[in-house]
Every structure is written in structure tokens, then in C-alpha cells.
Design a protein that fits this description.
alpha/beta, Rossmann fold, 9 helices
């Protein structure tokens, strides 16, 4: 399927045009670059007429159809039912009730003990994992993960990375983490001040010359890892 954005502009984005066809990508940029605004526009959470999937405008789709095609997983969990527990929340994300992998994912991340906990009582790291699992369970054709490794310890970050790599659909990963982006190896779209500054392969983006052009002296590479001071 072809996800196409044609000349999208908002308060934070300027003339964004791109195409994503049956592939996973990383959208990189510093805080305030427009990453989340772009993500929400892609799936219609910010209303617009500039996004299509296989030539069908997402703004014209029924909610269920749109959710089957594209899903936005936010970086922070907001719950209006303060008595809903983790298992009940995850059940809401099952399109196909005959394929219930909730127990599998809870075990995978070693958080089975949280299944009867109230969602409102979770730590920021725990709620981030539950959100990530909810995206895996919904299993849309394209799933947008907004900062999926935020507030996670190193072990959980590795597991999230592994699950994204082996996800059986396509991921759009929104992050400012160069190390996550590099390790995924997906096509990179880099935003700065609401515009696309780079769109290409991971190897081209992380080439020393390109990093120097984009970041100047604010990025240091130590072995396989990057230290960055965004400006």
C-alpha cells in the first residue's frame, strides 16, 4: 500500500510531500521539529485533505477502516476511565478477538504482574510499554510509534527495538534518538523547523559527511553509538 502526503502545511509544517510504500521508516528530528504533528496528520488526528492511502483520502474513510490501515501510538498514555486495568485496556486494541496475544506480549516484556493494575497507577515507563503493546495488538498496516523507547531502561529499549524489527506490518517510528534510528536501519526522514531536510537510506543518513552537514560538530560518534546536542 502507498501512503502519500501531498504538500501538507500546518502551523508547524511547511509543504511536506513524501511517499511510504510497503516499508518501515524512521522520522527523526529534535523536539519541536514537527515530528508528532506530521504523525498525527498522517492518521487524521489533525484534520487535513493531504494524506491518502492507495489514493483514498484518509479524511473520507470510516473510523474502523482507517484504524485497520494506520494507527498512531502516542508517547504518553491518557486514560479517561480511571478504573480500567491493563488487561482491559489492551483488550480494547484487539481487532481480531480470535487472535489474543496479550499474554504473550506481557510475558515478552516481563510485566505479567501488571495485568490487573489500574492503568492510572502505572509509571511513565510502564505506561509507555503498555502503549507499545497496544500498537502491536492492533496490528494496523502502518503503525506510528511516537518515541517508543522514552522513559525505558536499557533492557526494555532492546526488547522494543527487537519487536519493531520483527513486526509483521510496517512501522513509522518517530524519535529524536539517533542510536535507535541507526540500529533499526530503516529509511530516514529528518525534519528541521517543519521541513524535510533529508529523506533517504539509513546508511546515507549516518554517513560521516552527512552527519557533519546536518549536525555540524554537535554529534559525536563513539564506536557504534552517537552523542548528540541538538540545536
Amino acid at each position: 500500500m502507498l501512503l502519500k502526503i501531498d504538500n501538507l502545511s500546518t502551523n508547524y509544517l511547511k509543504n511536506i510531500s513524501l511517499q511510504i510504500e510497503d516499508e518501515s521508516v524512521v522520522i527523526l528530528g529534535s523536539n519541536g521539529a514537527g515530528k508528532t504533528t506530521l504523525a498525527k496528520s498522517m492518521c487524521g488526528l489533525i484534520e487535513n485533505k493531504h494524506v491518502t492511502i492507495d489514493k483514498h483520502n484518509i479524511s473520507d474513510m470510516k473510523a474502523k477502516k482507517r484504524a485497520e490501515l494506520i494507527n498512531f501510538v502516542p508517547s504518553k498514555l491518557e486514560i479517561f476511565d480511571e478504573f480500567i486495568d491493563v488487561y482491559e485496556f489492551l483488550e480494547l486494541n484487539l481487532f481480531d478477538k480470535s487472535v489474543n496475544k496479550i499474554d504473550y506480549f506481557l510475558k515478552k516484556f516481563e510485566i505479567e504482574h501488571l495485568q490487573k493494575s489500574f492503568v492510572k497507577d502505572l509509571s511513565s515507563g510502564e505506561s509507555g510499554l503498555i502503549l507499545f503493546i497496544s500498537g502491536l495488538l492492533q496490528n494496523s498496516y502502518f503503525t506510528i510509534f511516537d518515541e517508543p523507547t522514552a522513559n525505558l531502561d536499557s533492557d526494555k529499549k532492546i526488547r522494543v527495538h527487537e519487536m519493531i524489527k520483527c513486526f509483521n506490518k510496517y512501522s513509522i517510528v518517530i524519535t529524536h534518538d539517533l542510536n535507535l534510528a541507526s540500529s533499526l536501519g530503516f529509511r530516514v526522514i529528518f525534519l528541521k523547523n517543519g521541513q524535510i531536510l533529508f529523506d533517504g537510506s539509513s546508511s546515507d543518513f549516518f554517513h560521516d559527511i552527512n552527519l557533519k552537514i546536518i549536525f555540524g560538530d554537535s554529534v559525536k560518534k563513539i564506536d557504534k553509538y552517537f552523542l548528540v546536542n541538538y540545536k
